[in-house]
Amino acid sequence: MSSNQTATATPATRNFWNALRRRALSFFLDWLVWGYVAYGVMYLLNKYWWTVPLERFYSTLTLPSWGWPLAILGTLEMAVWSRNLGRSLGLRAFGYEIWGADGKPPTLSQRVTRALLWHLSVLPLGMGIWLSPERPWHDQGAGTVVQPAPATRLAGRRKAIFSQWGLMSLFLIGFTIWLGWLIIQIDIGILFRRGDEGMRIWREMLHPDFRYFAVPDPAFELRNLPYSILDMAVVTLFMALLATIMGAAVAFPLSFLGARNVMGFNPVGWLVYFAMRGFFNIFRSIDTMLWAVIFAVWVLWGRPLAGVLALTVHTVAALGKLYSEQVEGIDPGPVEAVVATGGSRIEVIKYAVLPQVTPAYWAFTLYRWDINVRMATVIALVGGGGIGDLLFYYKNQGDWPKVGAVVMVIVAIVWAMDYISGRLRERIT
Amino acid sequence: MAKPYLVVENLTKVYERGQVVALRDLSFTVEKGEFLVVIGLSGSGKSTLLRCINRLIEPTKGKIWLDGTEITRLSPRQMRRMRRRIGMIFQHFNLIKRATVMTNVLTGRLGYNPTWRTLLGLFPKEDRELALKNLERVGLSDKAYVRADELSGGQQQRVGIARALMQEPELLLADEPVSALDPATSHSVMQYLEQMNKEDGVTVLASLHFLSLARRYGTRIIALKDGALVFDGPPEAIDDAKFKEIYGEEAEQVEIR
After folding, report:
1. Chain A residues close to B96, C-beta within 8 Å
2. Closest-approach residue (CA) in chain B for A340
3. Residue B170 in 3-state DSSP?
4. Does pLDDT of A158 surpass 80?
């Protein structure tokens, strides 16, 4: 194609602004790292030093009012000095290096000069950058350049572990484990201190009570759910099956509306596409469990209907997204050919799109079936009905042998479904 | 005065992204029964030109008439009816790989059947018979129920030709029909096009890479360079100087026999 470019920005200037943006991002990364360190230090001080009284402890981070400006400026200083005295994490992450303008490594005095000049150049509203973007004032004054690290000099460089960014990374990993341990109050010892309790549950569950395997538990007559474990297993399987079939049936036509290449490049198509994609993404990001909470209130707690509806809604959104991405990935050639013979849009779907996507559609649907079976076994926790209803009832009663029986049935169902859907998926491709 | 069969007038195509001009103010006419070969370097606009004629690509500016109808003004529905008359074959065959040869060939009848029939795959008996006849014509009658991706490149292109034949077209657009094939197969495919042109009276517009093929099969050649028309005349009129103008100074003629 003739390169008849009439775009406003030439590639050179675009690359230039890109580079400046990357430099800024790399700086903010360093600032963020030090901000995190400061957060951790303040947390530790709060915990071990000041011991803040509970009524003034709003969060894991409690700072006096004068602490905030101090923390912001302090971390800014740390970021600046760490960038100039060595290769910081931010520089490393974006592949930058500070280097002497004469092509030699920067001397210590150059590094210190650059850090000091930075305050004059950047703090007054970034004047030194805006007035001289190709080479900011602090680089000019110190005789340095910030450049992408060349691959050829790799040989002479010290090992990552001895560099600033290497040490910083190691420190951050250790620091995070330490902080996390304190913040979520991990206490491994309790596993052993309450070991007897744990062993009791395991022992009782491993001596399952299958009394109500095929006969309904009289306790459930009050709740109008006179089902045995086996009945509930059947209910659960049908919940998953119905949700998968209905979900796939709805997602199938919608998936074409959510595919860019099918909808064409006109305003209406664009609108439908974005509406569809928005629907898929929003409904998918609300977990099945949350949908079940909503439907359990709507159609009454503990009804399998609530679970089926929740599973279906999530299935529609999840499969719709997977399907439409599959449609977008097809080879456009056959589409072109069918259009060229005078085929309509629906004929294009039938003759050019569907043959290309069917195997993947089947695979996704089976995979979703698998997920739905697993979800259906526990959705009762939030009122969605199914075998989980028994599980949580017996658990609340502390009747562990019966819990064990239900768990064993659930394991058997999930394992069988896993096996079946795996075998079927093998057959398809 | 009657208009020529195909008229292309001031055709311009600008791709919006990157603002690349693919066709610049192109005008030419084609008479019924011609075998017009479009030559030019990759990216010179050959594919765009062919796709503008059946409006797989919407032209930015300009008009196209086919047999007195202004194609560029047709509504989508009218365009679909018009496309039945225009067959097309592609560089990469564009077959439905996972379907049988028969299904692929039958897609050539989509424009002739009501949608409810095609959606159920209920093509009339005559269409199936025509499909078998056309497969026999391209020498693939024994492959009718084989999956399309099991065929060789040359066989796949012949399926493409059979599909185009199903439309009983009066105009055939061939977008680099032999670029993906080896020399021997290329000639066999080109001979089918020649046969359609000579025996069925189908007007052919074919873009080709090799000048030797263009000279051998074309009754007339047009050449594109950077989307503009740089040559329009009989095959014999392309001499060395003209060749270098079309393909650039460094180009050497490669023969394909």
Report:
1. 334, 351-352, 355-356
2. B83
3. coil
4. no
Mean pLDDT of chain A: 87
| Mean pLDDT of all residues in A310-322 | 96
Chain A residues with CB-CB distance to B103 below 8 A: 351
Q: Which helix (H) or strand (E) holds B207?
A: strand B203-207
The answer to whether the CB atoms of A340 and B83 lie below 8 A apart is yes
- For the cut 50, the answer to whether the pLDDT of residue A3 exceeds it is no
Q: Is the pLDDT of residue A4 over 60?
A: no
Domain-ending residue, one of B148, B168, B188: B168
Which of B53, B74, B85, B110 is best to mutate for the A interface (most A CBs within 10 A)?
B110
Q: Tokens for A149, please give them.
A: 């690290």
DSSP state of B100: B
Domain of residue B24, residue span:
1-85+170-257
Identity of the residue in A3, A341, A359 whose CB atom sits nearest the CB atom of B107 = A341
pTM of the predicted protein model: 0.76
Confidence at residue A8, expressed as pLDDT on a 0 to 100 scale: 41
- On whether both B19 and B73 belong to a single domain, the answer is yes
How wide is the angle at C-alpha A219 spanned by C-alphas A213 and A225, nearest 5°?
75
B119 Cβ under 8 Å from any chain A Cβ: yes
SS3 per residue for A321-341:
HHHHHHHHCCCHHHHHHHHHC
**Residue A56 pLDDT > 70, yes or no?**
no
B residues 155-174 closer than 8 Å to A (CB): 160, 163, 166-167, 173
In a shared domain, residues B149 and B180: no
The answer, for A7 touching chain B at a CB cutoff of 8 Å, is: yes
Q: Which residues in chain A are closer than 8 Å to B230, comparing Cβ atoms? A: none
Residue A61 has pLDDT above 80, yes or no: no
Residue ranges of domains in chain A, CATH in brackets: 11-181 (no CATH), 218-428 (1.10.3720.10)
Are B71 and B32 found together in one domain?
A: yes
Q: What is the pLDDT of residue A265?
A: 77
The secondary structure of chain A in percent helix, strand, coil, rounded to multiples of 5, reads 75, 0, 25
Q: How many CB atoms lie within 10 A of CB B136?
A: 13
Q: Is residue B90 part of a domain?
A: no
B122 and chain A: CB distance < 8 Å anywhere?
A: no
User: How far apart are alpha carbons A183 and B90 in whole angstroms?
Assistant: 64
Among A5, A336, A342, select the one facing B18 at the smallest CB separation.
A5
**If contacts are CB pairs under 8 Å, which of residues 314-343 in chain A contact chain B?**
333-334, 336-343
User: Across the strands, what pairs with B28?
Assistant: B8
Domain assignment present for residue B199? The answer is yes
Average pLDDT over residues A268-282: 94
Q: What is the mean pLDDT of chain B?
A: 90
Total structural domains in chain B?
Answer: 2
